[in-house]
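Hi R.,

Here's the chain you asked about this morning:
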Amino acid sequence: MIRKPTHPGVVFREDVMKPLNMNITQTAKMLGVSRKTLSEFINGKAALSPEMALRIAAATKTSAESWMNMQQKLTLYNARKHEPKNVTVFPVEIAY
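And here is the predicted structure, written out as tokens:
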């Protein structure tokens, strides 16, 4: 089984906030979000939004896409735990 991807909020907390010795209040102010919003994100309670990805990318000089890719991998991992069983394969091949 594949390892569960790390929540992007945990990555942000461990790889950005901790090395810079920044607390939630300081970081939230710098990102222009509420303390509650940031707390839910870095504690894995809320998914990364595209807006937050843009804010983090701007503050860290990284790409929003890299942050969104982390969230997408986690979202797909969680969805696979509840894959639908009632899907029927289409009778013909479709050219993509």
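One quick note: The chain has a mean pLDDT of 95.

Cheers,
M.
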